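User:
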Amino acid sequence: MPLNFSYVLTPLVTVNGTVTAPENGLKSMYLTFNEISDHQSINATVKGGSYSIVLKNQHSFMISIHYLSASNVKFVCNGGALSLSQTTESLQRDISCQGGVYEQ
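Assistant: Predicted structure:
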């Protein structure tokens, strides 16, 4: 008799981790999680190099890192993609700039 496994996906997932600063001496930094299919976005504040955010499971996000430099110039960079399909209520995900940094 074959074994059948089923997984229960949680509706919301708490995602947390560290953010590698693209440069030293930043005045502030936050992340934007842009949901790919419905184009909604949600921000997470970065404090002490760490963030925490609650996101909808079974959704995919593009992450942007926004920061204010020591010289008061606003920048944004690509923080990568995140696709959630979790059977647990939390996920550890560290984020850093992937590619170019652009002045906002």
